[in-house]
Amino acid sequence: MKAMKMKSIIGVALFLAVIMCGGQNAFAMHFTTAPMAATLDCSGINVTNSSTIQFDRDNTGTGQEAYQVVGTDGAGNVIYQFSNSVTVGSTLSQPPATVPWMAAPQYNPLTLRIVSLAGNGLPEQVPVNISGTCQGLPTFSTAVPTMNEWGMIIFSSIAGLFSVYFIRRRNHAA
Q1: What is the assigned CATH class of domain 23-132?
Q2: pTM passes above 0.85
Q3: 59, 64, 66, 121: which sits with the fewest CB atoms below 10 Å from its CB?
Q4: How far apart are CA 13 and CA 81, in angstroms?
């Protein structure tokens, strides 16, 4: 019992050591200043503070971190997209600015994601995920199929008939 407990403790310690030592480049870009603050509206992205992002994982295998900035509306339509890759260790500063959408949004909610892409054995990571709304636009919703009262009556009748059939069949077999 003691040997099994000791093996478990050693296993957990090794797991933590690998994560702490071997995973130093596994985290996606991160902010070296205050995180980006932005609002999303009908016209575009309004970055309200200065922020600096440091790129610190090689997801390309070439010493680069590939990333995308993607804006979508409530229906999933891409209304803004920018892709780039930068050298690992470099920084990018973003002053306050307004960036217009590339296409007009059609539905709420609006979403902006900065994505460090999957690659080189590393999973996709999303360090920035901001939502907003555009006044006057409808909220996108998917229709949930329903039955009206006659459909429910017919379905219940058919289910009842099947129940009676299987009960009688079971009773005759016994």
Answers
A1: mainly beta
A2: no
A3: 121
A4: 42
